[in-house]
Amino acid sequence: MKLLEGKNVIITGASRGIGTGIARVFAEHGANVAFTYSSSEAPALALEKELTEKGVKAKAYKSNAASFQESEALVAQVLEDFGGIDVLINNAGITKDNLLMRMGEADFDDVIEINLKSVFNMTKAVQRTLLKQRKGSIINMSSVVGVKGNAGQANYAASKAGIIGFTKSIALELGSRNIRCNAIAPGFIETEMTEKLDEKVVQSWREGIPLKRGGTPEDIANACLFLASDMSSYITGHVLNVNGGMMT
Ligand code: NAP
């Protein structure tokens, strides 16, 4: 059964990692996928081609999610190209880790702007469209770190905890219009980014997880699929932990 047949979806930051996984699963479920990237043009164009070959409409857009103006322009362009928006996934994110002692002001500001302000920018930009159609699902990518904190990631944890507060507030504001807003808090997800880490360290992380493995982009994509589809039509303001039992 295709759960998103004919739905138009925007995913920020889908040129690699979790975003690419979401785009693939969504296209397999019949969604038309508009997605953004920051600088990885070649992988973005390759993904656009791959998704189009699955028989859906797909388009890559270079757009900085941290920019209010670029987010507004992106949504206007997607509306022109796709004719509507049903689902927004705020996935774009970065890390600039350091202990507070060594964290510069720019490291804090960049992470807050790209991870948190982007969620405001994109949600504002799609709001009018979703309100008019009295239906929509917004999914924001938080993190286990936003739920529990992490030494060396004060900037990142603050951005991801901020996303949770934003998500719950929007769920309260827009619920009466049948617009749902939920967050996903992934645990340790193995992507190209984590491939660069020391295998011994990664193995020790895996052993500490009750399900004894890191998550995959598909694990997160399947949770997004549920929250984007009508299968979750009575769920809003929720933070879904997808972490192999890490918090248990
Ligand atoms: P990733 O592999 O580093 O990919 C990040 C994506 O965001 C890329 O497509 C990147 O585009 C895009 N991006 C970066 N800055 C952007 C900007 N200013 N505007 C638009 N797009 C931008 O990251 P990931 O591991 O897939 O993580 C995806 C999300 O899940 C992030 O929000 C992250 O915080 C969250 N998360 C990840 C994990 C994990 O273990 N991996 C755990 C918890 C939460 P370019 O390729 O062009 O740079």
Spell out the key features of this protein:
binds NADP nicotinamide-adenine-dinucleotide phosphate; seven-stranded parallel sheet; single chain; Rossmann fold; alpha/beta; 48% helix; 248 residues
Low-pLDDT ranges = none
Look up the CATH topology: Rossmann fold
Give the biggest sheet: 7 strands, parallel
Ions, cofactors, ligands: which are bound? NADP nicotinamide-adenine-dinucleotide phosphate
- Helices, by number, come to 9
Radius of gyration: 17 Å
Relevant CATH superfamily: NAD(P)-binding Rossmann-like Domain
Function: Catalyzes the NADPH-dependent reduction of beta-ketoacyl-ACP substrates to beta-hydroxyacyl-ACP products, the first reductive step in the elongation cycle of fatty acid biosynthesis.
Keywords: Fatty acid biosynthesis, Fatty acid metabolism, Lipid biosynthesis, Lipid metabolism, NADP, Oxidoreductase
Subunit structure: Homotetramer.
GO molecular function: 3-oxoacyl-[acyl-carrier-protein] reductase (NADPH) activity; NAD binding
Q: How do the strands and helices of this protein lay out in sequence?
A:
Elements: E1 8-11, H1 17-28, E2 32-37, H2 41-52, E3 58-62, H3 68-82, E4 87-90, H4 105-133, E5 136-141, H5 144-148, H6 154-174, E6 179-186, H7 192-195, H8 199-207, H9 217-228, E7 239-242
Parallel strand pairs: 1-2, 1-4, 2-3, 4-5, 5-6, 6-7
Helix pairs in contact: 1-9, 3-4, 4-6
The structure holds NADP nicotinamide-adenine-dinucleotide phosphate (NAP).
